[in-house]
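Limitations

Structures in this collection are predictions, not experimental determinations, and the ligand pose is part of the prediction. Treat each record accordingly. The example that follows, with zinc ion as the small molecule, is included so readers can see exactly what is and is not provided: the inputs are given verbatim, and the output is the predicted complex.
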Amino acid sequence: MNFLEDFKINLQGQYEECRAYREICKREGFNPYRDLNTEEDLENVPFVTTTLYKRSNGVFTNLLRKPIQDIYKWTVSSSTSGDPSIVGRTDDDINSLRKFVLEDEMRHKKDRDFECTFFPHSEDMKAYGRGKLYGKILESYLGNLVDIYTYLDDTIYLLKPSENGFNVDVNSFIGYINEHNKKEHKAALGGSTPIFFSTILRLKENIKPVELGNSAFVHTGGGGWDGRKGNINIGTFIERWRFVEEVSRFLGIPEENFTDTYSFTENSFTFTGHYSRDYKDYLFHVPEFARVIVRDFKPLKTVEGGGHGFIRVLDAYGTSAFAGASVLVDDIGEVISYNKCPDCGYSGMVIKIIGRVKGAEAKGCGATLGGDGYEANYKRL
Ligand SMILES: [Zn+2]
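Predicted complex:
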């Protein structure tokens, strides 16, 4: 695997097959055959912003690299605003996603004998909100990720389908933590952060803390740190250190046994961070099969280190159906190191994820991302 070579092939394909992306490149005077020769050149690769994939922009079909009949399915984000991102994928793209998600899972996976998760079963999750668009299946992106994760045969799925979505099976959760209390079992807990957190906050008012011990661990995923996910809204932003401290204290699991996985619908892999007591945050390892560039708000220059800015992800694989080779996410990240994890020694880039762009920064971002004029340009394509 040679990232630069593979990325170049992917980007050239995207340039050939997606007229909208070719127009962006032309406007920025960038030609992927001429201007992409070294790792330093990656900096200059034009990007597509994730907001362009939103249904309301009406241009997600223009961001395809293939005719709609060659798409296998649409994957859709779990939107709180009712304006989800819609990304078309081929069968190959789903297989590639599977490969890289499993790779990320293996790297961070801990041995387990028991497991409960604040996710629904993947079949229920994929079925929820499933629809058809231009004759192709439309499914939750997160449901497709959960479908890839490996679970035990007797994993307890705490989110049960109900009339309005999903209900938390609190009794099963209480049963689970009591069963493993003070046993030092290899007990896994995971799933959706806001649902996990709100359940713990509620329970700690009514029942005594448990001691699951050093062999238990918590692995969350699917975002929702702003307190919202799909139709869930716990009404408050969740500070990562607070989640870890509260849950660690209530369940009696060491803080260093907490991990979280990051992804977004326009991406073709996941990456996982482990909690660091020193940083009071999750440190995310960027895998060697992708690149992350953190760009300052104005004028979107790469930050030198220690600074924070927009996260831009470069994908060499798994984007054969959509313009996903170079994507600017509306999440803010901070570079911890370009080459080594200060906590565990992982050699590679390490970042913190601070959160979604909002308020004044969002306004600034609208301007730097080109704002209305920029998006209007795409609409005309
Ligand atoms: Zn590390």
